[in-house]
Amino acid sequence: xxxxxxxxxxxxxxxxxxxxxxxxxxxxxxxxxxxxxxxxxxxxxxxxxxxxxxxxxxxxxxxxxxxxxxxxxxxxxxxxxxxxxxxxxxxxxxxxxxxxxxxxxxxxxxxxxxxxxxxxxxxxxxxxxxxxxxxxxxxxxxxxxxxxxxxxxxxxxxxxxxxxxxxxxxxxxxxxxxxxxxxxxxxxxxxxxxxxxxxxxxxxxxxxxxxxxxxxxxxxxxxxxxxxxxxxxxxxxxxxxxxxxxxxxxxxxxxxxxxxxxxxxxxxxxxxxxxxxxxxxxxxxxxxxxxxxxxxxxxxxxxxxxxxxxxxxxxxxxxxxxxxxxxxxxxxxxxxxxxxxxxxxxxxxxxxxxxxxxxxxxxxxxxxxxxxxxxxxxxxxxxxxxxxxxxxxxxxxxxxxxxxxxxxxxxxxxxxxxxxxxxxxxxxxxxxxxxxxxxxxxxxxxxxxxxxxxxxxxxxxxxxxxxxxxxxxxxxxxxxxxxxxxxxxxxxxxxxxxxxxxxxxxxxxxxxxxxxxxxxxxxxxxxxxxxxxxxxxxxxxxxxxxxxxxxxxxxxxxxxxxxxxxxxxxxxxxxxxxxxxxxxxxxxxxxxxxxxxxxxxxxxxxxxxxxxxxxxxxxxxxxxxxxxxxxxxxxxxxxxxxxxxxxxxxxxxxxxxxxxxxxxxxxxxxxxxxxxxxxxxxxxxxxxxxxxxxxxxxxxxxxxxxxxxxxxxxxxxxxxxxxxxxxxxxxxxxxxxxxxxxxxxxxxxxxxxxxxxxxxxxxxxxxxxxxxxxxxxxxxxxxxxxxxxxxxxxxxxxxxxxxxxxxxxxxxxxxxxxxxxxxxxxxxxxxxxxxxxxxxxxxxxxxxxxxxxxxxxxxxxxxxxxxxxxxxxxxxxxxxxxxxxxxxxxxxxxxxxxxxxxxxxxxxxxxxxxxxxxxxxxxxxxxxxxxxxxxxxxxxxxxxxxxxxxxxxxxxxxxxxxxxxxxxxxxxxxxxxxxxxxxxxxxxxxxxxxxxxxxxxxxxxxxxxxxxxxxxxxxxxxxxxxxxxxxxxxxxxxxxxxxxxxxxxxxxxxxxxxxxxxxxxxxxxxxxxxxxxxxxxxxxx
Length: 1085
Hints:
Blueprint: E1 26-27, E2 51-53, E3 56-60, E4 68-70, E5 78-81, E6 86-90, E7 96-104, E8 107-110, E9 116-121, E10 126-131, E11 139-146, E12 152-160, E13 168-175, E14 205-210, E15 214-220, E16 223-227, H1 229-247, E17 251-253, H2 257-260, H3 262-272, H4 297-301, H5 305-316, H6 371-385, H7 388-409, E18 435-436, H8 437-457, H9 462-479, E19 480-481, E20 486-487, E21 490-491, E22 499-500, H10 505-513, H11 519-532, E23 535-537, E24 549-551, H12 568-580, H13 584-600, H14 626-640, E25 643-646, E26 651-654, E27 664-668, E28 672-679, E29 682-689, E30 696-702, E31 705-713, E32 716-717, E33 721-723, E34 731-735, E35 741-752, E36 762-764, E37 768-772, E38 777-783, E39 789-794, E40 798-803, E41 808-818, E42 821-832, E43 852-853, E44 897-898, H15 904-908, E45 914-916, E46 922-924, E47 933-936, E48 944-948, E49 955-962, E50 972-980, E51 985-991, E52 1019-1021, E53 1027-1028, H16 1031-1034, E54 1049-1056, E55 1063-1070, E56 1076-1084
Parallel strand pairs: 1-44, 26-30, 36-42
Antiparallel strand pairs: 2-3, 3-9, 4-5, 5-6, 6-7, 7-8, 7-13, 9-10, 10-11, 11-12, 12-15, 13-14, 15-16, 17-27, 18-21, 19-20, 21-22, 23-24, 25-26, 27-28, 28-29, 29-35, 30-34, 31-32, 31-35, 33-34, 37-40, 38-41, 39-40, 41-42, 43-56, 45-46, 47-56, 48-55, 49-54, 49-56, 50-51, 50-55, 52-53, 52-54
């Protein structure tokens, strides 16, 4: 299918503008970002394509072409390099293909086809060592850089041991094969051969040049020419000096060679997204300014405070300041079917406080709420610099923002905020004025920090402190799920105001990152990620198996862009939340899994990409994207190395997140360096500060042993304190004076610390848990936040408890004493589901001769084809929000989305009001007129409807059809209640994706990111009458996005009944906002 209009977006996908757009509805799957150039690689076995060697990513005889960009000057120019020496020079107007051949006494060899090629990517430089039988024992080395101060590149060729005559280099430059690039030729977003030469180039220029030792070649104005040795050496030294200066900003040394490449590579990628004024959305595919998402974190974390301030100033000038809110809520765009706000000045969204998308331009409406990310980054800037003069300068920007957020997203003043396209995973997310965890968390931190800033600059902190307290109280009361141990995704504002428990990773990491969690909540919430979010193994030939796995962003279905992806920034931000929760080993493992996935197994060495190979919809896609660069900066510096500045309060916390088996590690940034070493029972931290005024170091470390022999700061005995924690280790704090150089030494002694339960016990509900308390340890308190302990006893050597609670993973905590240490220790248990399993499989006991169809013709209120032909206008939120379009399908990115439901084939198979299924079950259906009883919370249909039943039966077979979407996943969309004459009843919940499916599409299920119960329910193809548990296979539906079922499909359910009781009726009730649920036929057996 072809898209009918270009979609613009900031995820790498798009939103629709109101002006000049086509009014033709799109079809499901009709999305620009559904294009994948990686289908041939789906489920392919991977290999370790690059190995670390010091700072270098090394590849032998690699195959990837045009996948590692070198950035020089801060323009869109880049030099595309390959695993072998073939290149492309990108400018938007005139991209070029560049290749070389070498003519020797043994023949002419294309340099991208030599027998042996070792390539190295060294943060901004690509080098090659080549040999070939035609070289006659000679060798050729090539090094290339992008020029640092103008658009161009330089190559250095060194020929050695060519004995008979000097080899001749044949250089060629031509236009590229694909003149129409969709995303600037980015990996996975444009065809892989885009930068190859055309089969018949029209602009080919070639010339020979003899190599006598060393040769330099320059690309300038998209033309190649040779340089004199003096010119070449001068440019070479200049390029290398500029590269080295940038690369050396961040230096990391650890026992893990896969991490030692990251500091310089990160600095170079970050430089690639700087355009001289602001941090860009991406270096390549999304090279454009952007006020939001997380790229701007990189400035302060990597010590570019001047760049950070330039960025913040540029977007402060983009804040709307002279447009008061004159138009009331709701201000929805009727042309876009009410799915999103109308672009009109004076509405709540487009009024004072809104920050526009381009720097120094505050008259541009751009839909997204990028304020939240921008302000969060600005508040971190103050923590890094402590610059109160700048706080005073930016104070009006902050206060306008906070007032704007409140006006737009907490207009009912309940303390919980709606989320309006305010994070990377914003496209297709809509909460319909709901109370959302991630946006509330952002606003909590912003208000809490604003209160702290106000005190320091003489402003009134009271309103901001009160708002922060209100938000946190509401989050804990309404969004925290105490029996589950994590935050809900959101609570509905409309309808039954239900809580959607199936949280995405952004819910967990934003809540932790915004400091809304206490230590117990942080631990439990990250355990939710462990147990509920899909984990995908990261494996490859050449990579030692070590349980590496990356994660999906959610467990939701059906797929829509940004809803369930494997995205590097999301994985790394989740890893950061593990470090913040004190779970350093888990954070390191997840971080390393992501690093391996993208930078070593992927096609671009050292790539900070957007989308992973394991992403079902796109595969490996985009390079050096702003969001993962910003998050990687934080997870490396603030997570793994635990550098947490608070210059506003003249201190810096160092909380190392090193794996237990590391005996050394060091990091150096422009602000601070520290080196950790361990020798037997002595740990030493040497800290060197380069802040303008040295901060007071505060070292937070996990205790290694039960006692401390000594603590010394700069050789002088010092004290230590214990901090409340819940991650399984005592957390100790050691403070030092603010000097430029500090050495802290800790000597441990005694036994290692004991863990009460190393493995997760599996226990039945009402079962018993018995744990041995190791010798030397004791337990004095028990904290059971999830209420899984019916009762418990603690003795000197044993902990015994009776377990209660719902099946699944749970945690309680025990307060442990050992030696000098006291700490809370988590105990994870798994409660097994021992409820009596049904003795049948659905539809396994069909007896056609005993089937009787139920006549409820008079209650039929629609044709099934009406479902997306209606306008669903009420009830709708009284506030501006992102919501379901009026046609009942789509979301704000695709507000005109449509699907045609066609039941003509089914109707043609109905004879005498009977449809005989291939399963043997007959259903009473109508050939003409209404053929379904719809229910919905929309006013178009009743919320519920009851159908009379009589007699007895062992099964009720239902033919149903209706809508659902990803925002209604893992929650009961509706409920079917069977009423018996004796007053009893039974209920069956209709839950997406278990037994409720969208009429218009087939679920993509791969048992990785997309999981669903098996066997899948039977579905009925409305256009043909075909029935299958795998309609996608039957109808040859391919792809991940959309998966349109032509004509739509219903669903068949088998509800077992108590055949000893007289039946009275069946009630269908819709529970979820957005959806329409209908019954077409009921047959009793």
